[in-house]
Every structure is written in structure tokens, then in C-alpha cells.
Amino acid sequence: MDFNPISEDPVKLDNNYPTLIDGFTCDSNNSKLMGTIYVAQGKGPHPTVLLLHGIPGYEQNSDIAHVLLRTGYNVVIFHYRGNWGSEGTYSIGHIFEDIENVIEFLKCRQSVESYRVDSKNIILIGHSLGGFSALMAASNHPEIKLVASIAGFNFGLYGEIISANNNLVKSAIENFEFIKSPVIKGITPTKFVEEIIEHRKKWNILNIIKKLKGHSVLMIGGIRDNISPIEQNFKLIVEALEKERVDFKEVLLDGDHCFSDKRIVLTKEILKWLQVYIRK
């Protein structure tokens, strides 16, 4: 590559197959999801990153999307049901279904032809709830080889920790008061916590580590993260990946939950990981 995609624009432009940024909609269980697709220049087909945001999604990592775009990746950012204008009601269970439906959308003939998607090279990268969801989705898709969790929150383990103590449940409901955000509809903090507790075993990442064998996993944690503390989330998952001999890379950055002051180094780490495995 004859330019630095983190700090420079492409030197050469492909006028026949130019860069494209377009809105799209995708049906998910009779609800319309809203999203944006970033299409890399060139005939392709291009490896396509599904970039999953957290709750409520104020940080959507579009800076990372643009760097990946300049590097030659397609990127998709979409909004879950009941979130940022997408139809339907919000829940973690619905988010899992939404991811499945978007993956199928990316594999369909229309996406392959219109957006130059390499349907055999889809990559999952998520932040916070998106990181958790990326790992969960990858465990059900052996054909998706690359998955990254950035400050992922292990909701299943969290549910197991709080489920035996009513005071912890009450505190959890208070902690999720922010879910009353105007960009989220159809759920309350109480319903959200009840859903986590109900599915705590199934949604504990530690219980599905074996299903990540055959994948290459990137784990990024923030030392100053007080929303997804590394001791309960990052470190336990890394230990489990190592024990099961899953192919993974761990990166600890001196950052907060959104890596607000570490965006460049965060992006560099993602690029380094991708470039190693894309060459394989």
C-alpha cells in the first residue's frame, strides 16, 4: 500500500469501481433495520467487516470504518431493532437475530453484486455489547474465521453473578437506567436485566469458548474501563481462550470503555490483526 490509511487518503482512485457510502435497510423478523455500508474502491469482491456497536450506540466507531474502507475492506454499521430508528423492540435476544439476518443479507446475491461483498470473507468486530454479540455470533458461524471483541461485556457471566442476590439485581436495574435513552424503544431497565438473568448460562461467553475453535479472535481491553472491567470480562475470556487453545491475540490499552483518547492506537491494533490473517 503506497499510503497510510490511518492518516492519508488513497493515492490512486478507481473511477470504474469507486468508493461508495450508502444507506441500506434489511428485514429482521418483519422489522426494518437501518444501516450504512461502506464499499471499498476496486472491483472486489472485498472482505466485509460487520462493525457492531454497543448500548445505546453513541460510539459507532465510524472513524475505524473509514480507515478500514481506505485499506480495502467493506464495512457495515447497522442499528438493532428498536435502536436509532430501526423498527421493532430492543432486546439482546433480538440483537442476536438481527446479526444473523444482516449476515444473510451480506451473503445474498444483491449485496454481492451491488456492494462487491466477498460473501466468503465476512469479519465480525464489535464494541461493548457489540463485542459480546460478535463472539456469540461467531460461535454459531464456523465459516466466519475472524472475530474481534473490543471492551466486550460478558452479559451471561454478569447475569450469573447478580442472579443469586436481590440487592445486586436491584443495583443492576439502576445501573441500566441509561437504557431509557430516546434512541432505544420497547424495553425497560427491569426487562433488560430480567432477560440477562433468564439467559445467563447460554449467554456466558465462558460457556461457549470451545465453539470458537477454528476462529482467530482479537481481544482488546481498556485498563481504565469502568463499564466493562477487564478483571471480570477481558481477562477471564482470555484465560479461557488460552486454556482451550483457541487462536487469539490479546491487547491491553491504557484506555477507557470507548478508548476515547486511544482511537489511533486502537485502530492500528485492529489493522495489524486483520493484515496478519487476511494474508493467510
TrEMBL record:
It holds the Pfam family Abhydrolase_1. Residues 47-152 form the AB hydrolase-1 domain. InterPro entries: AB_hydrolase_1, AB_hydrolase_fold. It comes from the Bacteria. SUPFAM superfamilies: alpha/beta-Hydrolases. This is AB hydrolase-1 domain-containing protein.
